[in-house]
Design brief:
heterodimer, A: 468 residues, ten-stranded mixed β-sheet, 24% helix, B: alpha/beta, 20 strands
């Protein structure tokens, strides 16, 4: 393949690799300190208790060791990162009110079209603050809250305080601590009981300042017997220096609720993507994570579901594409803490051009439970001899009345399949593409149409020139 | 002058500290929690026993159909008998005392030791190579086929009352090209266990299989429930050789094993099977590595474990495929049977694949006994206890498929003993 076809190898070729001059309003210096954390909190006019949590998290961050497993994180320089930037003065209501350069950026991402397509609320993140936010009137009338976490903290401090940091404590791991200390932006969703949010809610996140880590914080609470589908998509411009993205996503699915969280992550090739995602599913609740990881330099992300009530169900669908210089360390975790619970993890990974795709997962069944079922399937496709695929599933079973199954397969594109397709007149490239698409199909089908199309397009871009 | 293997190991031993849960391999086997404090230190302080060459040995009864029988105590051969057939074929059973000068040390044993000590090793392995009294070195001349099995019995008998009981037996098998050898390594003995004196066995098995050779090893670990058992294997396969390996861990309060099969020759083939039963208050941590270094080699692992209430088992298996190992075919299966409330089984099958032309897969299941199977047997007149026993037996016996007919009784007897 020729280098200029690789979508993440250089600025000129990267489809989303454009950036407008940085016009952020408030931007403390690089590096992390108590002053920075206090400044962020003051800037956001936060209540005292939030500042408290931030400061405790900061101490936890200093205390916690770097993970000694997973993707190689050796060269993150925490002092060389901006921890906060507020792009415009205040949150705007209408699309037209957005600053022009931000608008242009979004235009190129195709956001207004997404809006035209009637996709519920658009919470768009430019740098770290939500600058644009719209919720359709019918959602509002249903009592559904779809806000930035800052807004939520201002308007509904009681709900935020009740749930914030309860699913992922501030000292859960080094990067969750970092996020808790300096979080900014993200989404807050509250769905009242017995509401079915028919349209997927979505937010675009975007990193625009060089060396600027994005630490968004998402909290989704779905009350009894309600349903919501939240979609998060990421694209970022290409810079040469390393950047850090460390998000925290907390989900609470109350009795009988169902939450689906879909991500297509396409960070550019110089970003460390270290995300902590965890959901709690109560009695008869269902939580589904659909997680596609295509870009970034290093990804460590293991969406988790804690099944806390009887009848709860958890699902993780994970796609990882490890291209040149990339290490995708992804997977899923399910903790069965109640009887009559079930879970499924399906992982599909592709590694190419010397990239690494790793599945790392955990199935844990607590003591004294009955009728617990879990099934894990990992399929990996290796496209050339330089590329690497790893599988690290952990299964910890402490009850007897359970069924825990795991299977994994690693292979390359079979000659037979290629030969068959080429005999039908397809070029080798088309045939490979078709096989890869077929390989991913079971997961792609789970995505809404626009996202399925986008994912297919991204994979196509990544696959370009991979043969011959 | 070259340093000897025990010297090298002693240096390593002094440099390392006892493995703790910060190391991935020991994360689920916390020695500081599972063993009384100081037990390892006290046991490791025991004087190292070396024998020199042994001239006097008694001759044990040699059952029919066996090629040879060697009885060892604390790893040192005390009785040995070879059949006429074995003598005729040229079977060599040699005692290599640890104090032999490095010049006279068999090369393949030294290579195996270095391979183990140079890899990311831990203190337990270093301890073995530091303190082993010597190795039982088994070999055959080129092109010799010995169908009848060689049986090696390690007996653990109580030492004096005051000092801890420690044994570090080592078995080394060096096969040249085109030979066939069948072998059983058996561990027996249930010495009385006192609060502070817990017997520790730290065993090692190394083998090299020359081109086209076939080695079938069965291990029958049937020690008493109070014993701590460590085992590490390093089995090296040359071109087109074939290994059939079965390990059965029935006894022991703490068992921690790490078996590495290195497929270093093209077209080599390894089948490794294991079965283990974790009784109440016992901890079994079984580990295997299928290390593919050469093209077109294949390996299959089948490990089956049963865990009783209050017991804990851990299985971790790794398939590792190096960039040169094109055309690798590797499979790994772990099945765990949980026999009641309060039993815990962890399963960690892993793949680490550095090239594309491979077929690798693993499967793992953990579950309880199928109630319909129990019901069926009960309806045929089995009591619930018997039915459970039979199903457990049937479940575990699947992993004995590689054991030669002449040896199968030894293993099924051990299995019956604990069911």
């Amino acid at each position: 393949m020729s280098d200029n076809q690789a979508p993440v190898s250089g600025l000129a070729d990267y489809k989303y690799g454009f950036a407008y001059p940085d016009q952020s309003v408030f931007k403390p210096g690089k590096g992390l300190s108590e002053e920075v954390v206090r400044a962020i909190s003051t800037q956001k006019r936060e209540p005292e208790w939030m500042l408290e949590i931030r400061l405790r998290a900061l101490r936890a961050f200093y205390r916690k060791p770097m993970p000694n497993w997973g993707a190689g994180l050796g060269n993150i320089d925490f002092e060389d990162i901006y921890y906060y930037a507020k792009p415009t003065e205040s949150v705007v209501k209408n699309w037209e009110d957005l600053p022009e350069d931000i608008l242009k950026t979004y235009d190129r991402l195709g956001l207004p079209e997404a809006e035209k397509k009637f996709l519920a609320g658009v919470g768009a993140q430019y740098d770290s603050e939500v600058v644009y936010h719209s919720i359709q009137e019918d959602l509002k009338s249903q009592g559904v809250l779809f806000l930035s976490p800052e807004q939520a903290l201002e308007e509904h401090p009681d709900i935020v305080q009740k749930y914030f940091g309860t699913i992922i404590p501030f000292n859960d791991n080094k990067f969750a601590a970092l996020n808790t200390a300096v979080w900014s932006g993200g989404s807050f969703i509250y769905v009242p009981p017995n509401i079915n949010v028919e349209i997927p809610l979505q937010a675009y996140f975007r990193i625009n300042s060089e060396n600027f880590g994005q630490f968004e914080r998402t909290l989704i609470i779905v009350d009894e017997n309600s349903f919501v589908h939240y979609i998060e998509g990421c694209t970022a411009p290409v810079y040469t220096t390393d950047s850090l993205h460390s998000a925290v996503v907390e989900i609470v699915a109350e009795k009988g609720a169902r939450v689906r969280y879909s991500t297509i992550q396409n960070w550019s090739g110089d970003i460390f993507n270290l995300v902590t995602k965890r959901a709690v599913a109560k009695e008869n609740a269902t939580v589904e994570w659909v997680d596609g990881n295509i870009g970034s330099k290093r990804t460590m992300k293991y969406p988790a579901v804690w099944l806390m009530g009887e009848g709860a169900h958890g699902e993780v669908l994970s796609i990882a594409f490890g291209g040149k210089d990339q290490e995708q360390d992804t997977g899923g975790k399910i903790v069965h803490n109640a009887s009559n619970t079930s879970s499924i993890i399906t992982s599909k990974s592709i590694s190419k051009d010397g990239g690494t795709a790793t599945y790392r997962g955990l199935i844990k069944v607590a003591e004294g439970l009955h009728d617990v079922k879990s099934h894990v399937v990992c399929d990996a496709l290796i496209l050339d001899e330089k590329s690497i695929s790893k599988t690290f599933p952990y299964m910890e079973v402490e009850s007897d009345d359970v069924s825990v199954e795991h299977e994994a397969r690693v292979s390359r594109i079979s000659e037979d399949q290629l030969f068959y397709l080429m005999a039908r007149g397809l070029s080798e490239e088309e045939a490979s593409m078709m096989i890869v698409n077929g390989f991913l199909d079971p997961l792609v089908k789970q995505l809404p149409m626009e996202y399925a199309v986008e994912l297919n397009r991204l994979i196509e871009l990544e696959m370009e020139g991979s043969v011959g | 002058m070259n340093r000897s293997v025990p010297q090298l190991a002693a240096e390593l031993f002094d440099k390392l500290s006892w493995p703790d849960t910060t190391e991935e391999e020991w994360r689920r086997t916390d020695l500081s929690r599972l063993l009384p404090k100081d037990l390892l230190d006290k046991t490791a302080d025991l004087p190292i026993f070396s024998t020199g060459d042994i001239d006097e040995r008694s001759t044990p009864l040699l059952p029919e159909n066996y090629a040879a029988r060697v009885i060892t105590e604390k790893g040192i051969p005390v009785a040995m008998a070879l059949s006429e057939e074995a003598v005729k074929k040229g079977l060599i059973v040699e005692w290599v005392s640890q104090d032999r000068s490095p010049e006279d040390f068999p090369i393949s044993l030294e290579q195996s030791a270095n391979a183990e000590l140079n890899q990311e090793t831990d203190r337990i392995t270093a301890w073995h190579w530091r303190s082993f009294p010597g190795a039982l070195h088994i070999s055959l001349p080129e092109r010799a086929e010995l169908k009848e099995p060689v049986i090696i019995e390690e007996r653990l008998i109580a030492g004096d009352e005051q000092s801890p009981l420690f044994s570090a037996p080592h078995l080394h098998i060096a096969l040249p090209g085109s030979v066939e050898l069948n072998l059983l390594w058996s561990f027996d003995g249930a010495p009385e266990v006192q609060e502070s004196i817990i017997p520790v066995v730290n065993a090692g098995l190394t083998a090299s299989l020359g081109e086209n050779s076939l080695l079938n090893i069965a291990m029958n670990q049937n020690l008493g429930n109070g014993v701590v058992f460590f085992l590490h294997d390093n089995l090296l396969l040359e071109r087109d050789s074939r290994l059939e390996f079965t390990e059965a861990h029935f006894g022991g309060r703490l068992v921690k094993t790490r078996g590495r099969v290195v497929l270093s020759g093209k077209g080599s083939e390894a089948r490794i099977n294991g079965l283990f039963l974790a009784e109440e208050d016992s901890h079994k941590d079984i580990g295997t590595i299928q290390n593919h270094l050469s093209p077109r080699a294949s390996s299959t692992a089948l490990y089956k474990g049963a865990v009783r209430p209050g017991g804990r088992s851990v299985y971790h298996g790794l398939i590792e495929v190096s960039p040169d190992a094109q055309g690798t075919d590797a499979y790994l299966t772990n099945r765990n049977l949980v026999l009641g409330e309060g039993a815990r089984a962890d399963s960690i099958p892993q793949l680490n694949i550095l090239t594309d032309d491979v077929k690798c897969s693993h499967g793992s299941t953990t579950g309880k006994m199928d109630p319909s199977h129990l019901f069926y047997l009960e309806s045929r007149g089995f009591s619930p206890v018997e039915a459970k026993k039979e199903l457990t037996r049937g479940f575990l016996t699947e992993a004995l498929v590689l054991v030669p007919d002449t040896l199968i009784d030894v293993l099924t007897d051990s299995l019956d003993g604990i069911l």
